[in-house]
Amino acid sequence: MRRRDFIVLVSGAASWHAAAGAQQATKISQIGVLSLGRGDKSDTSLKTLDAFVSALRELGYTEGLNIAFDRRFADGDANKLSGLAQELVGHRVDAIVALATTAARAAKRATSVIPIVAIAMADPVEDELASSLAQPGGNVTGTTFLGPELVSKRLQLLKQIVPGLSRVVVLWHPRAYGERTWPAC
Asked: Do the Cβ atoms of 54 and 93 come closer than 8 Å?
């Protein structure tokens, strides 16, 4: 075998081996899920989690292939959330998905580094999950049902969905929006 042929052969084999190794070393993102719920069929928050996983699948993330979920449920006991959040941090997840405010607060107490995506927060400013709505800062992001300016729009949508609607009862907590948030709205 000529020297040049040998070098081409070895170089090709080395690059093939490196490429095969790189494919095997593809990191699977670890997503921690933290919920106050029970994690069984009676848990309505599972519909939210299922929708989240489905949306990720549409974006090309497949559980077991390029993403993995580490799910933690507190079985309705808010006192368990802090310990469960610490477990997720200890497992070095890449992000934490917190279902609702209570779980988001526990996750934020557990880490200031790991990104937290909170789904359905109440008042992120008053609950100290964000500095302000305009400039949240920190490691928490997500969705909130906050928005007094959207109440009329929500009623309009309800009227469109139920055309024969003539009366609506609204239950309103007088402190639904904290003083830190209300001036910003």
From this structure: no
Domains for the chain: give ranges and CATH numbers: 23-146 (3.40.50.2300)
Which percentage of the chain shows pLDDT scores above 90? 42
Long-range contacts of 36-44 (CB under 8 A, 24+ apart): 36/73, 36/74, 36/76, 36/77, 36/78, 36/81, 36/99, 36/100, 36/102, 36/103, 37/73, 37/74, 37/75, 37/76, 37/99, 38/73, 38/75, 38/76, 39/71, 39/73, 39/75, 43/73
Q: Is pTM, for the whole model, over 0.90?
A: no
DSSP state of 127: T
Task: Compute the mean pLDDT over every residue in the chain, rounded to the nearest whole number.
Answer: 81
> Please, which residues have CB within 8 angstroms of residue 125's CB and are 6 or more apart in sequence?
131, 132, 133, 178, 180, 181, 184
